[in-house]
Design goal:
By secondary structure, this protein is an alpha/beta fold. The chain is 44% helix and 20% strand. It contains 13 helices and 13 strands. Strands 7-6-8-9-10-12-13 form a 7-stranded mixed β-sheet, with helices on both faces. Strands 2-1-3-4-5-11 form a 6-stranded parallel β-sheet, with helices on both faces. The radius of gyration is 23 Å and the shape is elongated. The N terminus is likely disordered. This is ABC transporter substrate-binding protein. InterPro entries: ABC_transpt-TYRBP-like, Peripla_BP_I. Keywords: Signal.
């Protein structure tokens, strides 16, 4: 009788033992890191997670998800990269150029998908815009600068001097500065630079532009975006309008932005990650660029910064911040 009583339990134990490895084999792991937390990069992270769920990879079911921010510190980004590589996930998602550079430097084997990187070739993440044939691919937030400057002229028609606060150590910003130096003279304007190597330098860098610039243009520099309110205060105090390339910055006080929807960028990235989880090799996947551009405007911010947006510009916007 005892043998009969214990037999079903033994069968259950064997069944559980047989199922457990199958579940472990089905589970995928994705490690996500960003250089800093701000609305645009947070939107990328959330978009990646949403796209993975839509593709059948859901945290708590068949996906192990972990996320860490470097809080703006490149040294911390390198530590996170090494930690994630040691965890041997199925893919690492690196959001923004400094984090992507840290992860790519840390592994030649773990699949890496970068996102929100302006120029991955200049940042030495991939050898070209074609499939890398190594362990790296991703999605760029490269913007057409000529269209950005056309918007700037619509906001400040008489602008001659374009101020830009940026971190010289951030590859994506250095690329934009180089390109603006070539582009602006063709449009009858010049670039006035103000370096902000740290987030805490953004306010003083912006103040240094007062009297030297007619308008401030902000790209997706992570120091600047993470401290955007400090820039807005200078803009309001000095009647120096801010034109951004990051649409999330408009709700924070920029006058206007023609940029990428970073939630969409994250979802595009997430779909790429899903392809890798399903068996594709990152080196066979070409680097992508987001093609969706949106105009956001903030008439209230414009008034506080000494300009008035034309009715035509406001009507053409995808989103008007009131």
């Amino acid at each position: 009788m005892k043998k009969l009583a214990w037999a079903p339990l033994g069968a259950v134990a064997l069944a559980i033992a047989a199922i457990a490895p199958a579940q472990a084999a089905d589970q995928k792991s994705v490690a996500v890191t960003a250089i800093v937390e701000h609305p645009a990069l947070d939107a990328v992270r959330d978009g990646v997670k949403a796209a993975l769920k839509a593709e059948g990879f859901e945290e708590g079911k068949n996906l192990k998800w972990q996320y860490q921010s470097a809080q703006g510190n490149p040294g911390t980004a390198a530590q996170i990269a090494r930690k994630f590589v040691g965890d041997k996930p199925d893919a690492i998602v690196a959001i923004a150029t400094p984090s992507a550079q840290a992860v790519v430097a840390a592994t030649k084997t773990v699949p890496v998908v970068f996102s929100a990187v302006t120029d991955p070739v200049a940042a030495k993440l991939v050898p070209s815009w074609e499939p890398s044939k190594n362990n790296v691919t991703g999605v760029s937030d490269l913007l057409a600068l000529d269209k950005q400057m056309e918007l700037l002229k619509k906001v400040v028609p008489n602008a001659k001097r374009v101020g830009m606060v940026y971190n010289p150590g951030e590859a994506n910003s250095a690329v934009v500065v180089k390109e603006l130096k070539e582009l602006l003279p063709k449009m009858g304007m010049t670039l006035v630079e103000a370096a902000a190597p740290r987030s805490v330098d953004v306010s003083s860098a912006a103040r240094s532009l007062v009297g030297k610039a007619d308008v401030i243009y902000t790209n997706t520099d992570n120091n600047v975006v993470s401290s955007y309110e400090a820039l807005v205060k200078v803009g309001q105090d000095s009647k120096l309008p801010l034109v951004a390339s990051d649409t999330d910055s408009v709700a924070r006080g920029a006058v206007a932005a023609l940029g990428i929807n970073y939630r969409d960028l994250g979802e595009q990235t997430g779909r790429m990650v899903a392809r890798i989880l399903k068996g594709e090799k990152p080196g066979d996947i070409k680097t992508e660029v987001s093609s969706k551009m949106e105009l956001h405007v903030n008439p209230g911010a414009a008034e506080k910064q000494g300009v008035k947006l034309s009715d035509e510009l406001v009507k053409s916007a995808a989103k008007v911040i009131q």
